[in-house]
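Continuing the series of single-chain predictions for the mutant panel. This is the parent chain; the variants come on the following pages.
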Amino acid sequence: MRKLTLLFASFALCGALFPTAFAATDGPYTTSTPIPSTSTDWVSSLTFQQFNPALGTLTAVEVDLHGSFDTTITVTNTSPDPSSGTARTEVQFTAQDGGLNLAPTPQIDLLSGTYAYSLPGGGNVTSPLISTSTSASGTYSAAPILAEFTGLGTYALPASTFTQTVLSNTGGNTAASQVTSAGLTGSVTYFYTPVPEPSSVALLGLGMASVLAFARRRRSA
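Parent structure:
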């Protein structure tokens, strides 16, 4: 019983003297990159700093996308008869590396608020500025994907937009067009198993040596 008590006391002393050796390691971290709001349609890429393998072993990657756009819609009645209805702008954000086959890749299909109109024959009207935004995410743990995100450089994820006007009309022949600027922000969160810090390992060894020395002194007392 005395030996068991001595063992527990020794480990408690080690933890008290060298708390850094038992401290929790850093958790997952996030890196992000924006594509500024630009007139659609555009083709660009989201460029992320890769996960440094010196930190540990990458176990999963979470990709988050946040898309937003501003639009104005112009509706034109090309007939002599009156027309009325609603118009909306749709922007599809795509970010996909075909080589990696991220499945499912976070995609954004974003519709603006509805703009209602009523036009006489030959009339036209332009909406005020309409803004909207949304987000999507996906988590991946397949080895080829983790390998692409691991290194000391950057990883580029191709991105693009496709924009169109959605029109619902009654009456004379009517057409709609839009002027739109869209932006996309991408964030990557790295989940990993960290490697012990050299200082922590050294402190742990020193702590165990102190435990053994403490035990020897107790036995000789």
